[in-house]
Each structure stands twice: as C-alpha cells, then as structure tokens.
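Consortium newsletter contribution from the modelling node. Members have asked for a concrete example of what our holo predictions look like. Here is one, prepared for the adenosine-5'-diphosphate complex that several groups have been discussing at recent meetings.
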Amino acid sequence: MKEEFKIAWRNLWRNRRRTLITSASVFFAVFFAVIMRSYQLGSYDHMINNFIESFTGSLQVQHEKYQDNPLLDYSFDYTDSTEAAILGVEDVVSVTPHLESFTLVSSGTLTKGVAVIAIDPVREKNFSDPETKLVKYRITEDAVKGLNDSGTVPEDVLEKVKGNLGRAYSSLARLELELDLDNDDGERFIPEILKWTEVPNGYLAQDDDGILVSDRLASYLKVGVGDSVILMGQGYHGVSANGIFPVRGIIKMPSPDIDNKLIIMTIPAAQKFFDAEGKITSLVVNLTDQSNRLIKTAKSRINLLLKDKSITARTWYELNPILYQQIQGDSQSGVAMLGILYFIIFFGIFGTVLMMVSERKREFGVLVAIGMQRNKLKRIVTTEMMLLGAIGLVFGLLASVPLIMYFHYFPIILKGDLANMMEDWGWDAVMPTAWFGPYFYWQAVVVGLMVVLATIYPLRKIGRLKEIEALKG
Amino acid sequence: MKVLELTHVNKIYNSTEVKVHAVNEVTLDFMEAEFTCIVGPSGSGKTTLLNLIGGLDMPTSGEIVIGGTNLSKLKSSQLIDFRLNNIGFVFQSYNLIPVLTSLENVEFILLLQKKTKAERQQRAIELLTQVGLGDKLHKRPGELSGGEQQRVAVARALASRPRFILADEPTANLDTKSTENLLEIMEKLNHEESMTFIFSTHDARVVNKAHRVITIEDGGVKSDLVQQPH
Ligand SMILES: Nc1ncnc2c1ncn2[C@@H]1O[C@H](COP(=O)(O)OP(=O)(O)O)[C@@H](O)[C@H]1O
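And here is the predicted structure:
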C-alpha cells in the first residue's frame, strides 16, 4: 500500500507542469465555488433573518383560510392559555399577537383605504418595535425658516438642511447621516438644528384608544399628533364599524407603499372597533434560530397543541412563497453556474487523464507482462487520480477558510439605495459570508465525483489491456 | 532438466484480410542453463514466438508447458502470477518504471512477490552489483544510458528467480560496446547462476555469443544448432 502510494505520488509529478495546471484549475474552481456559495447563502440567511425579525416571524398561527382570504371572519379566539402553551414549546422565544384588517380613514373631506394593524404595544417591542419608527425630527419649511432667521448656523450647513426639506427622521443617527456634516460642524450645529426640527410624538399606552398613523398617510390626511380621524369599515361578520380615534403618534415606515396606508392601534381598541371580542388574526412566533429544521419541528409541535383544527401554524416561507421561491431560484442559478464551471474543469482533468493513459500505455503493458496484477495497477492509477483532485481541493478549501471566517465576522458593507433601504428597515446593510456548512463539504463531493468519473476511463483501459498490444507502444 | 516444452505450436493471425501464419508447427525443448538465441529475418515470427513462450499471447493450437504447467490452462490473472514467479522479461526498451530508481525497479518485482524489505534490498543490491551498477543504485532510468537501463532490466528479470529469462531483441537499441557488455553480463549470469536465457536477435555479433542457435523462417524452425560461442 505504501509502495503503491509512493509510485502514485511520483507518477503525479512526472509531468510537473501538467499536474500543476490541472491542480490549479481544481484549486480555483473550488476556491471560487466556496466563496461564491458562502456569500450567496450568507446573504440569503441575512435577508431571511431580517425579514423574519421584522415582518413575519419564524411562524404564524392563523386560521387555515386566512392565508388566502385575509378577512376578519377568519380570525380566531385568543387566550392567555394558548399563548402560554406556545411559549412552552422548545426554542420559542416570543409570541406576539396581531389583529389585522382594512378600513377607510377620513379626516375632513379626505378619505382613504388603509391597513389596520392592532398590536400589544409592549410586546410588539420585541418584534417590529414601532416605537423606534416614531418621527422625532422633521425638516419643514417652518423649521428651515426658523433656523435661517435665528442666524445661528452658517450658510453651507443651512444649504444641507434645505437639501433634505420634507424629510422626517426616527433617529438622530439617521438625521446626522443624511445631513452629512463634518465632525466639527456636526458637534456645533446639530443641537441648534434639532431645536427647530424636533417634533412632539407619542407611542401607544397599553390600553390606548388612540392610534399611530404612518407619515405619508398623515400628511395626505393633513393630521398631526393630537388630531382625530374617523375610521369606517366592516367588522367581524359584516357588522359596520365606525369610530373616532385620536392620533397619538406619527410613524415613518421605510417602504413608501406601507407608509402611504398604515394605522396601528391596540388590540383591545381594534377588537372593540371591529366588534371582534377576544379575537386576533395571527400570532407571530419567534424562534431561537431560523434553521428550516428548527422551524419545521416547532411548527409540528405547535400544531399538536392547537385544539381547534381550523387554526394552524405556518412557516415564514409558507407565508411568503414568492420570496422563498425567489431565493430558491437565485440559489439554483448559482448552483447551475458552478455546475458549468465544474463541467469545464472536469474536461481539464479528463484531458490530463487521456494524455496520461496514452503516454503510459507501453509502461502499463510492461508492468502487467512482468507480473503485476491489473487490480494493483488500477489501484495505483486511482490513487494517482485521487491525489490529482485532492491537491486542488485541499488547497482550494484551505485558501477559502480565512476569507470566509474574516467576512463572516467583518462582512462587506453595502452602499447605495439598497443599503439605505435596508438601514431604514433597521437592518444592517451588510453581506456576510455563511459559516462553514454543507456547501463547504459539497465541493469535496463534487471534486470526488469528477475524479471518479475521470478515473473510469483509465481503469477500463487497464482492464482491457492486451499485453502484446500495449508493449508495441 | 527441461524448463520449457513447445509441441506443435501454431499462431495464425486472422485480423487482417490475409491470414498470417506467424508461428508454424513449432516443437522445441529448452533445458536448464541453456543460452539460446533465436534468429531470423524481420517478420519471421521471433517476437510472436517469444510472446507465446512468455505467456503474453495464446497459441492458436499446440501446447506450451513450463515446469509442468500448461499455459493454456491458466486464467488471465493466474497467468500474470505465473509470469511473475516463472519468467523473467527483458524487452527491447523502456523496460523500467521511470519514477523508480534502479534499486527500486529491481526491488519492485520482489515487492510483487511479497518478499520482505530486507530480502528485497539485499537481493536487489547484490544483482545490481553483479551487472556492474553498484554505484548507480539510486539513479532513475532517465539518468542511465541505454545499456545501463538494459542491465537493470536484466537484474530485475533475474531478481524474481524465474525458470528462464526471455529477452526479445535486448540489444536492438544499443551500440556495439553496450551490446557486448550486456551479452557478457548475460553470459556471466548464465554461467554463475545457471540461469536459462532465451533471446532473439537479427544481429550476427549477438548470435555468435549463443550456445544454441535456433533459426526461424516464415514462422517455422529452419535449424537448431549447438555451437561454441565465438
Ligand atoms: N497482431 C498481429 N496481427 C496480424 N499479424 C501480425 C500480428 N503480429 C505479428 N504479425 C505478423 O506475424 C509475422 C511475424 O511477426 P513478428 O513475430 O513480429 O516477427 P519478427 O519478430 O521476427 O520481426 C509478421 O508477418 C507480422 O506481420
């Protein structure tokens, strides 16, 4: 065995250049494949985690018909005991109730169809946390005028403020970022700017009968904190729902689509308004981590707990099939690309094998003639082929390790519109690599398969070798 | 003692359009310690005959018996083992494994015979010294001259302690001096180790060194003479 290995190893370096070129091609393929996969999977994970954390949660408990018909009629009774039971399921970290519906809102002569999301103001902080989206600063005409008249800030700073006229901010950091003042100016003039741009705002109390209105909707309706609006719509089982609601706060939703039409209120207020006593439409369940396996297990455990069989738990990807399909599609096209890459590399390896066999035909003949069993010769050639694949594979994997580790802990920071949008949502605009997982070991499987395929040819040649023909050269 | 016996051996090639009777009704005996040369013009059937004797090819008819074993009774893998333990081979050229040194090349055949490391080394060094390559044990074939490579091949052929050594035109690619040198060594080993040699050639100088000369023409034995080497 040791001798066979020695011969195989030395054979490998008979044509040093060819071996190096072949190994290098395997090396680059593996390296590229690992890095690319790591980035792809890492960004999917990042995206999914963000998405789960701010929108759907890992799972939602809903009426089975709610997914296709998001109507109040498909709401369900929400009790503390259901919640306690679900919280008791392994790996569940939080349970957040929602009551969601549609209604009309009007103020004066202005009317608009809006989405209503009813929440538990305290528990929602663990999930989408609307409090952080409350508008704290707003650059209005008045603010710019006041700032100008006060004469406390220089012209260039004022220009920058004017450049953001009409913008509203939920955090100081965001305001500073967009004003883009240098450090000195920032320290000196930000307090002054804040004085003029700061706006009063409020969050919902536990049993509040008021509402939060999204920023664009509020400006359409021309309402502010302290004003009231009228909601009119249909409640549970078609009863008509009407009410006057004071505006407690304005929230800035990053997506313009949502910002145009969102009203948030407390669950008791909504239940009363929609005449849906004790009902909610969904229960958002968050888990300790978002692996598919964990989500599936939690789903079946929760479903076992639910006594009413029309109520069911759905995973984030069942709730968002399109997003899930997009990710899958993207991932598959990545895999297909690597498939093509490996396909090309395979022909490189195969070419090397073809040349090797034709060069060594006579040698194989001599070896079998003097008394070497074909199987032994096959083992040597197989060892040689495995070494040929292994060199590139091992070095490719090794070379990728530091990069994957580095960019996992220090991810690439994104810039531009996408980055801004992500930051608005409260996400880190970064692209981390995925930690070592099956994708890493798969490269070894692929290279192994390529080697096996390429080895079939010389093994067949050796198996069919006719001594006298091989000896002729 | 008889080491090799051929009775009514025929080899007919049908592969081409014309039937070629490459070996025609050959009946021969070889005794232990003979130093035999097979001569004949190119295309007379020398290589075909040696391939049959070496168990590298099967006769169309007739029997080849080596040390009591009828070659045609062996399966392919048995035949390989039989060759390993009974026949030493020296080919025209490129006999050796290029990635192994002289020593390793000779040891290799002993390795195939599953001899111990110590035994392998001792015998390989001894034989390489006998063929005059004691100072080139660690040279690879590429670093040796053609004559030296053939000497390593002879040492290897001898190492496995075969019943006889077959050499098909072993000097075909050698110059006069190396040819003489190789034949001297073969003769010495024939003498000292009582090793049977059967080699082919179409070179008259080589023929002169043989003790027995078998002349082949058109696949048949034309003459079979014992001579004083000169
Ligand atoms: N594989 C083969 N197929 C057909 N004819 C062959 C084959 N091998 C050898 N021959 C023919 O058999 C005859 C003897 O060839 P060979 O044994 O090589 O002669 P020598 O070694 O004396 O030159 C030649 O006519 C040759 O053309």
